[in-house]
């Protein structure tokens, strides 16, 4: 019987004990965890079949964020990321959010969009009406191109035509890809219906490819935090006993975070960094589960710029004595096919999080994004980010200086305490053993 997503003191455990804990909190065995995570999860011989000119494999840290409750379900959230503090910060934010019931998440439509470009169209208006009249036929042609998807309940759902001017018209087909990310499926459909659309428009057939601005496949997540849960000092650990309340500052922190959010709404320079903080969480989950993070990034930023001004994907506002955050973004991910076929760690990541569908994965990644955003702006709006960052960065510096085992924490703590997190200081501290 698996447990929830709270594992007090997790960060203090060794690797083996952490795997043991995750096994107990998921339905995995320690052996399954060991096998899938050993040596980065993918064999060089397999890698050689995945991309070209392979020399080997390149690994990144695979961790798990704790404390997530999403739509009432606890989930351990797998994250692959090279940046210190991302996982700890997401876990801490998820813990604050958990106190008020956790994240609520929903999918707004679930359709992947593919585009067919038509150019040298003699009369755009005529082309648009001919194409529009032919939507039923085009949808049927699209269905015939992906019979297996249709058999399983997916397939083209809607068509659209857009007049781009200059003799250019573009047809969009919106497709339910079920649990696949769907790039291959929608590209197949675009190629299948392309020639007929060119005939109808009396133009020349151009590109047939998905759009990464998949704005018909969006996810929205919300979180509420009570002032009391914000008014605790930024924890160094995820252990409740180490959280020192700082009086009634929760209300002041709500105002500070609302101002930070407003800053991102008013200023593109800030919005870019604000969104980067969101993508720290989103991408880490997308990477862990073997999905295409470049596609997700492209969609996120195009969506952020949809009004003509690049804007924050998530905003935070006061509601009474609570802080309420909302993130909305396109998120095309899958739980079948692609990298998942060949990458045992990616399959393991889905099992750790108990994710069975593309929808659950999109919502989980978005919650990690909102949690990362909250953690970042909470730190920035209060004590600043460097103290927390530096103490985690100190661990990597300690390792670079040659520390192993218990020495890593000892050296990291020593150099972080001096405020000079340098290789030289770490080497000195290591030799002082
Ligand atoms: C660093 O990876 C992310 C932050 O810059 C995000 C932010 O500024 O909101 C801390």
- The CATH C-level class name of the largest domain: Alpha Beta
Bound molecules: (R)-mevalonate
**Which structural category do the helix and sheet elements fall into?**
alpha+beta
Tally of alpha and pi helices: 17
Query: Roughly what fraction of the amino acids lie in strands?
Result: 15-25%
Distance between the termini: 44 Å
Main sheet makeup? 4 strands, antiparallel
Number of strands: 10
The CATH topology annotation of the largest domain reads as 3-hydroxy-3-methylglutaryl-coenzyme A Reductase, Chain A, domain 2
CATH homologous superfamily classification of the largest domain: 3-hydroxy-3-methylglutaryl-coenzyme A Reductase, Chain A, domain 2
């Amino acid at each position: 019987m698996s447990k929830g997503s709270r594992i007090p003191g997790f960060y203090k455990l060794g690797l083996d004990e952490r795997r043991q804990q995750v096994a107990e909190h998921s339905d995995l065995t320690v052996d399954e965890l060991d096998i899938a995570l050993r040596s980065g999860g993918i064999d060089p011989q397999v890698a050689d079949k995945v991309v070209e000119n392979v020399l080997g494999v390149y690994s990144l840290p695979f961790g798990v964020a704790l404390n997530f409750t999403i739509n009432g379900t606890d989930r351990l959230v797998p994250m692959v990321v090279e940046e210190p503090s991302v996982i700890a910060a997401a876990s801490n934010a998820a813990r604050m959010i958990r106190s008020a019931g956790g994240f609520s998440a929903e999918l707004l439509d679930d359709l992947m969009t593919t585009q067919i470009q038509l150019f040298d169209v003699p009369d755009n208006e005529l082309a648009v009406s001919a194409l529009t009249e032919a939507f039923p036929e085009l949808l049927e042609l699209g269905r015939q191109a992906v019979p297996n998807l249709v058999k399983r309940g997916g397939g083209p759902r809607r068509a659209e035509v857009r007049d781009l001017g200059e003799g250019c018209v573009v047809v969009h087909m919106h497709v339910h890809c079920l649990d696949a990310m769907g790039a291959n499926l929608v590209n197949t459909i675009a190629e299948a219906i392309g020639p007929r659309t060119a005939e109808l428009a009396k133009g020349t057939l151009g590109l047939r490819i998905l759009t990464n601005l998949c704005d018909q496949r969006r996810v929205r997540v919300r979180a509420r935090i009570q002032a009391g849960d914000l008014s605790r000092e930024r924890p160094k650990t995820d252990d409740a006993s180490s959280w020192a309340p700082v009086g009634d500052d929760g209300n002041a922190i709500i105002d500070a975070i609302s101002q930070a959010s407003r800053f991102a709404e008013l200023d593109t320079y800030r919005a870019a960094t604000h969104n980067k903080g969101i993508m720290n969480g989103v991408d880490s989950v997308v990477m862990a589960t073997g999905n295409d993070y470049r596609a997700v990034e492209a969609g996120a930023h195009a969506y952020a710029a949809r009004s003509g001004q690049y804007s924050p994907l998530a905003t935070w506002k006061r509601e009474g004595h609570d802080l309420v955050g909302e993130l909305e973004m396109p998120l095309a991910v899958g739980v079948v096919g692609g990298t998942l076929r060949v990458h045992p760690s990616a399959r393991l990541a889905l099992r750790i999080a108990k994710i069975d569908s593309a929808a659950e994965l999109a919502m989980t990644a978005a919650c990690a994004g909102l949690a990362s955003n909250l953690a970042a702006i909470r730190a920035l709006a209060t004590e600043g980010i460097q103290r927390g960052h530096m103490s985690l960065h100190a661990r990597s510096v300690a390792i670079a200086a040659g520390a192993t085992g218990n020495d890593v924490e000892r050296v990291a703590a020593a150099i972080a305490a001096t405020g000079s997190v340098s290789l030289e200081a770490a080497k000195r501290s290591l030799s002082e053993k």
